[in-house]
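Methods — Computational structure assignment.
A single polypeptide chain was analysed. Its primary sequence is given first, followed by the predicted tertiary structure written as C-alpha cells.
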Amino acid sequence: MRYQLELFFTALGFFTRLPVPAWVPWSTERLNHAARYFPLVGWVVGAIGASAYLFFALVLPPSLAVILSMAVTIRATGAFHEDGWADTCDGLGGGWEKAQVLTIMKDSRIGSYGTVGMMLMLLAKVAALFELGAQGESGAALAMLVAHPLSRLAATSLIHHLPYVREDASAKSKPLARRMNGAELLTATGFGLLPLLLLGPLEALCAAGAAALTTVWAARMFVRRLGGYTGDLLGATQQVTELACYLGILVAWNFT
C-alpha cells in the first residue's frame, strides 16, 4: 500500500506544483509505474477547480468565477498541459517533416500557431464552462470533476497504445515511454471513468463518447504525422479531450 501511495505522489509531483511529502522517493522508474495514477491526479485538479469555481461564484458573476477557477487550476498544474498544447500547435502547424516538427515542439519559444491555439482553447473552455454554469452552479463544477480525470485517462491511453518517438534521453517525458501492462491500464481506466457516475446517463455517455472520439482522432493524426507520441502531444490530448468532455455534456443537455 505504501508503494502505491508513493506512486500516486510521484504522479502528483510530476504533473502539478502541489507539494508532496518529503518521504516520497523520486526515480524515473517510479514515474514510469505511476502512469496508472495520472487520472487520479485529475481528481485532485478537478476538485481544486470545482471548489474554486463554487467559492468565486458566491461573490462574483459566473463568467469571472469560471475564469478565476481556470486560473487556479493552471497555477496548480504549472500550465503543464497548456504548454504541451501550444507546442503541439506550433509543431504540427509550422512543421512538415517529422524532424522539423519535433524541433519546433522542443523550442521553448511560442509561435503564432501556439499563441492562437492557446487563446482559442482557453476561450472555448471559458465559454463551455460558462454555459454549463448557466444551467446551475453545480453544472460547471461537476463537469470539471469529470473532465479532468477523463482527459488524463485519454492522454494515458496513448502511452499504452502508441510508441514514444523522441530519441533524446533528456526529454522530460522520456520516463513515460514504457507501455503500461493490463493491470496498470485497468487501474487508470477505473479512476478515469468513475467520476462519470456524477452525471446522468445521457450526459455521461456523451462526455465519454466525445472524449473517446477525440482521443482516437488525435492518435491517428499523431501516428500519421510523427509515428507516435511525445510529452507535448500527451498534454495536447489532455486539453482537447477536456474541452470535448464539456462539449459532450452541453450536447446532452440540448436533448433534454
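Note: The chain has eleven helices and no strands.
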